[in-house]
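Ticket closed. Logging final result for IS66 family insertion sequence element accessory protein TnpB.
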Amino acid sequence: MLIAADVRAYICRDPVDMRKSIDTLSYLVEPLLAQKPASGNLFVFVGRDRTKVKCLYWDRTGFALWYKRLEHGHFPSPSSLAQRGFTLAELNAWLEGIEIPAREPHRAVAVKRVS
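Final structure:
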């Protein structure tokens, strides 16, 4: 799955039935995430017990669906990420089990000189 670095990811705060497939998940994007399913963004759905995740993505020619099931443990709560879009780096960290705070990352600084 090749995804551009500037793609934003959006996670559904509510648990989703992991038996749902591409069509049903794509229908849930607008009412649950207030986004267009074919926007090119990545949409993350988490199962009730937080051991399963599905990521839905439109890649210009059709939808792609990525599925991960943990053998032990749970994914961190999606509530802190559900309030905003996040980067693919944050998504990768979250998928590895790192709790992502709801704070903004450090702001970029325009350097005029180095002392």
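The chain has one domain: 9-95. No further action required.
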